């Protein structure tokens, strides 16, 4: 899982192997060991819910993606457009989340990008 975080924007990109694990019910995890004690972990799983879910703390969080939306997205692969969410955050802010499957990896396994 590749994680890009800047301000109130979060981009998560996975490859086809991680997508297969996610669709098989596994949780995808990206963990970074920090100097000194502690680590920072980002986790992702699918849910039967119709809305995206987000929980955890600043050092360990879990993103729950609606399985039906992910399955609809998989039918469009390979494509550059992913799933986009806007979640209310503290202090009246919004966290925007972009979830994507790496288009190059997808095109390599699935064939030419769809238009």
How would you describe this protein?
The chain has 115 residues and is α/β, with parallel strands linked by helices. 21% of the residues lie in helices and 45% in strands. It has 3 helices and 8 strands. Strand 5 and strand 6 form a beta hairpin. The chain starts with a strand and ends in a 5-residue tail after the last helix. The relative contact order is 0.21. The model has no long low-confidence stretch (mean pLDDT 93).
Short description:
The chain has helices spanning 16-23, 67-74, 103-110, and strands at residues 2-6, 9-14, 28-33, 39-47, 53-57, 60-66, 83-88, 94-101.
Q: What is the number of helical segments per DSSP (H or I, 4+ residues)? A: 3
Round the mean pLDDT to the nearest integer and report it: 93
Sheet with most strands: 4 strands, mixed
Q: List the helices and strands in order.
A: EEHEEEEHEEH
Query: How many domains would you count in the coordinates?
Result: 1
CATH class: Alpha Beta
CATH topology name: Gyrase A, domain 2
Strand order of the largest sheet: 1-2-8-7
| Rg, alpha carbons | 15 Å
Cα distance spanning the termini: 25 Å
